[in-house]
Amino acid sequence: MKKRPLLSFAVCWVAGSVAGCLFSGYELLMYIAGCLLLLAIGAVGGRSGWKIAAVLGLSLVAAAFYWEWNEGRNVSLLPGAWEQLGTELNESYVSAEGVIVSPVERDGDRVSFTVKLSRMGLSGTGKQAVAQNQHADREPGAGVAGERIAVQIKLQAEQEIVVAAGWKRGDQVVILGELEQPGEARNFGGFDYRSYLLTQRIHWLLKGDGTASVQASPPASWHPASILRWNDTVRAALGAEMDHLFQEPHAGYMKGLVLGIQDDLDEETFKQFSQLGLTHILAISGMHVAVYVGVILFILRRCRLTRETALTVTLLLVPVYVLLSGAGPSIVRAGIMSMIALLAARFGMLKDGMNILAAAALIMLIWNPYLLLSVSFQLSFLVTAGLMIYVPLVNPLLRRLPRWLGGAVSVTLIAQLVSFPLTIYYFNQFSLLSFAANLVFVPFITFLVLPMGTLALLLSRLWDTAAGVTAHVAELLNDATFRAVEWTNGWSGGVTIWSSPTLLWMGLYYGLLYGVLYTMQQRTEARLAPQAMEDETKPLAELDQPADDRGIWRTRIWSGAGSNAEQLLFQMPDSLRWSGRAVLIGIAAMVLLLYRGYHPEHLAGAGRVSYLDVGQGDSILITTPGGAHILVDGGGTVSFGKKEAWRVRRSPFEVGAKTLLPLLKQRGIHRLDAIILTHGDQDHAGGLQAVLEGMPVSSLLFNGTLADREPYRKLMNTALAAGVRLYPVQQGMALAPDDDTELIFLWPEPQAVGEPILPEVEEQNHESVAFRLQMNGRSFLFTGDMDKAAEEAILADGREAGIGAGQPIDVLKVAHHGSKTATGAAWLNFWKPGAAVISAGVNNLYGHPNGDVLKRLADSSTAVYRTDLQGEIQMEVRPGGINVRHKLEPETP
């Protein structure tokens, strides 16, 4: 604490901010009191003085209350201003006036930006009024000045692209549109868009149709914020120059690498790099700043400028580069650290990396405390601190390697080890090939591809021919990189899936990692020390090992008499044996910790049925008491007709890739034992494509028919290519994943003699797989999109064969999202379900669930759960009963 007071102050500030984020009220006060008690104990024990402890305590308390103060200010002004109008704020049509305060981004037919409001009032009550740009304000929304809202404009025609391209940061705008609350997480562990926007101090979305809903005019005069407007223009011009120099996918890749513009990055390229843990290469990072600063200093010194002048000029140029590269958290961190280091070097001040890092963290968190929740911020600071702390411990262990190779290995290894907990926390996967990939690709791209791309950009305005040749060389290097990355990803089993760890798990991981590396370092030095004593006249400065704090121990040996030296040497083997045991214990503890983190969640003999909210579709995850995972359907994004090319977005929403697969990974599911595809409709089968591509699957059970649809054929071909076993199921079959679980298939009917083995069926609903699940003595019925004809056939067969007779089920999955085509009165009377679950999308176009179906369920005294109202519905199944929880509080439809 005394050696690095700024670092200690920053650590306490971060701890206080974390406390303010995680706790409130009484819990926050208890947390702060506990931390202050620890600081007092440290002061009493002599680790720090009372003055230092008081300053650190003040930092902790100030950070916690600073966070609470920001939370208190981070509220919307609109609800209070709307109370006087006596109207519902959500989904109302408004006229908003303000200033664009963010870059204007276009993705297909959607244009997005942020507006800082100066005024807002109610407008027309229909989309036609908005489209006609009619101002019908009844009363302005008072007191909304300064409120930030996210604006989304859906373009109506290709010609509007040119109009939207003229909108820029700083423009005064008047927008007519529909005001909406951002969506919140609808599944446990799912992405919460509303919470994310809160960290940007945004509480509302304003959606408009076409450029006619926006009136924009440039600012009347220059303002300091005009620098950002100019910066956006320059970045756009540089991006256009990259498009001119490079072909796709190289243009998008090089824009991300050189300029930090990731809007046009090829999705497949990003996926390949992401799988190997190389996405940090695709964005501007601290390495880019280091290369930039080094090149500028080199050029200025070659121009025979004095050291002081070169440092000053470089210091002034760093903010320019930070702005041009997008000013993300990692680049801002690196920029601040570089400026502090350059300033310290300019005035000959004592430089310390950890204190500089602490200063950067304090500046950024005081400027915006919500940066603490940014993944980029966390990874940037954590990896940088990890390199400073752990690399000195690893370097002695790699002393036998050439210095250049040992340095690269130690930096890459520590970066991987330090970033590992955050990587699995946020992305739930880690490639076992990530270390090798980073060791090879990062230097290759950073010191070869990046300079070539930058050089091509610099030459583009001076010497077009040379720029073209340089760009072509860079494209050849990119092609080699893409092929190598794809080949590396071809190794099966390289990607491991992890559930999101707890904060305690991550703290134990970093503590064990430090303890193991520190003990190994001390053991290595102890082994080397006796060899150094063979020549008692050899001065300390000539020893192979650097003269750091270890010199204290050596000085004691060299300054003592011969008998003392012999006594110390005689005691060293015991020290080595102790350190060896400590290393083994630490490694064993680390392996156990990793095993516990990798192993999926234990339900202690319980099973679980999770009705996932995938919008207008079905997807149900069954986890058996024995730990088997069965996925019933995968939802799917339904598209109506083929979109025009200009409307297609770079990464369109697809429920399998954006919702289902991340949820499965977040819950630590390494492999699906079975997928049951009830039928081939897109809202049940579409999301399974991403699942088959992103996760091992043992078997796929389907209804024994084929559908003449391209997505369905692609799904089946993907399953075959992945080695997934395909099983057509029919009435009378059964599956027993473990002793406490059995699936009994009730539909479809067995094929008649002479029919094709896998007939092609266009209307899939009637052929939906239906089965009864028995788990821990409880029963569930799954029905897909079956119709009343299938229900009647099952009832007839059931009465004849005794299937289900006299055995009421606990939970019914209502067929076809509650459509009137199923769930008849006879069906409910036969099964007598205690509860029913309806999977339907919010405000879906089909009017699901049907009112008559809801009435029949109410008449049969069946408790109803709905994903459109309650989000994901989880049922924990134990022999003693079923415990139900849902993500959202139910609302009246």
Commentary on this structure:
It is a single chain. This protein is an alpha+beta fold. It is built from 29 helices and 25 strands. The strands form four sheets. An eight-stranded mixed sheet has the order 16-15-14-13-12-11-24-25, with no helix packed on it. Strands 17-18-19-20-21-22-23 form a seven-stranded mixed sheet. A hairpin with a 2-residue loop joins β24 (873-878) and β25. α1 (5-22) runs parallel beside α14 (353-367), α10 crosses α18 (464-489) and α22 crosses α24. The two termini are 58 Å apart. 36% of the residues are buried. Mean pLDDT is 86; it is low at 125-138 and 531-572.
Q: Could you give the topology of this structure?
A:
Elements: H1 5-22, H2 25-44, H3 50-73, H4 78-82, E1 92-100, E2 105-107, E3 110-122, H5 127-131, E4 140-141, E5 148-154, H6 160-165, E6 172-180, H7 193-199, E7 202-209, E8 214-217, H8 226-245, H9 250-259, H10 267-275, H11 286-302, H12 307-324, H13 329-346, H14 353-367, H15 375-394, H16 403-427, E9 429-431, H17 434-459, H18 464-489, E10 495-497, H19 503-532, H20 550-559, H21 562-598, E11 607-611, E12 620-623, E13 629-632, H22 655-666, E14 674-676, H23 682-685, H24 688-694, E15 699-702, H25 710-721, E16 725-728, E17 734-738, E18 741-747, E19 770-775, E20 778-782, H26 788-801, E21 811-813, H27 825-831, E22 835-838, H28 851-859, E23 863-866, H29 867-870, E24 873-878, E25 881-886
Helix pairs in contact: 1-3, 1-14, 2-3, 8-9, 10-18, 11-12, 11-13, 12-13, 13-14, 14-15, 15-16, 16-17, 16-19, 17-18, 19-21, 22-24, 24-25
